[in-house]
Amino acid sequence: MSTSPLRAAMVPVSRQMRAYFAPVNRTTETPTIFDPGVYGAFPLDSPPAPWLDLGWIDSFERLYDTPTNGVRAGNNDLAALQFRGPLEARVEFDFREWGKLQMALACGSEHMNVLAPVGSATPAPSGGTPLPGVAVLAGSTASEIVFGAGAVGRFPAGTLIAVDVDYAQETGYVGSGIAAAYVSNAAAVNHDVNYVRRVTFNVGRVVEVTATAVVLSQPLLAGAPAAGASAQAVVAFVDREGGSFFQEWSALFVVEQESGGRVCFYYPRLSPNPGGAAKGSIALGKTGVAGGFVREELANVAKPLFAISLRASFVALPSVDPNDGQTVLCYRSYFPAAMAAVY
Q1: Three-state secondary structure of 137-186
Q2: What CA–CA distance (Å, rounded) separates 14 from 12?
């Protein structure tokens, strides 16, 4: 009787899963590419730009509902060949960390910065009339914003600031670096000069104030501020259920290896789609969709403490693989552990 060789480290084992997102160029619909050959094991704590680390996630599910149909032939009506029907795939999970991007992805539409209001502001659910913007001066970088000696005092340490250009009555996508909203009619946003800063992803936290500038805890996502940009203080973030704008992102989900290999799920184009019907679940956790509704839950930490999760649900949009022209929704890559069996 023969003995099988040792089949070592063939089961990927992990404690946690991590999510990374990167913007899609909305004008050309060009995704951010994850090339497993170039990135290798992908450095989790220092992802290559423009990938953004959005922290650990729970209850991850891949949902696949692409039908396979067959053509039958002959006297016995036997299956002769098969083909795939309309492609459809989804992914769902819970963000365990809260931030502007996490909230924006969970809501799926325009995500708003609540700008610091003037004392007589007319109340509005997404923020009323704000204090005027402060002009950003030449010499600013993604991490240090220059205002000059007189204006820098507007932004003490700890302040959140939104840095972007004035809204100039343009239509189309707005927001530096990442498309934050789509304006079809300037009148729809009341010709608001502050509108771009209300929706921009170009937000940072002030950690140090010098004589003429502020230093941010993290670089602005769009890099150095554009010419003519201004800054306004942000007091909160707000998302909304509804709206006509659909976000679009490239996404990478990494099963960090505890023992065995690492698994990566790469979606070239994901569009947040809360409430979509879920079928054909490939579940790595509990479902968050019931009857087409998103269910957000309170997770017990240690009574009476609980954590509020952000349930995110996405539909996968198609992308063309340049190697063979095939239409693809998702790529799964596997990095075997050292000396693991191949099959």
Answers
A1: CCCCCCCEEECCCCCHHHCCCCCEEEEECCCCCCCEEECCCCCCEEECCH
A2: 7
Cβ contacts of residue 215 below 8 Å, gap of 6+? 143, 144, 206, 207, 208, 209
Domain ranges of the chain: 18-66+81-108+244-335, 112-238
pLDDT tens digits, one per residue of 79-124: 777 767 677 889 999 998 999 999 999 988 999 999 999 987 688 9
Coil, strand or helix: which one is 105? helix
Rounded to two decimals, the pTM is: 0.86
- Summarize pLDDT for 181-217 with one digit per residue, the tens: 999 999 999 899 999 999 999 999 999 999 999 999 9
Task: Enumerate residues 6+ apart whose C-beta is below 8 A from 89.
Answer: 62, 63, 64, 65, 66, 315, 316, 329, 330
Which two structure tokens, joined as six digits, stand for 326? 């095939």
Structure tokens at 147: 């205002």
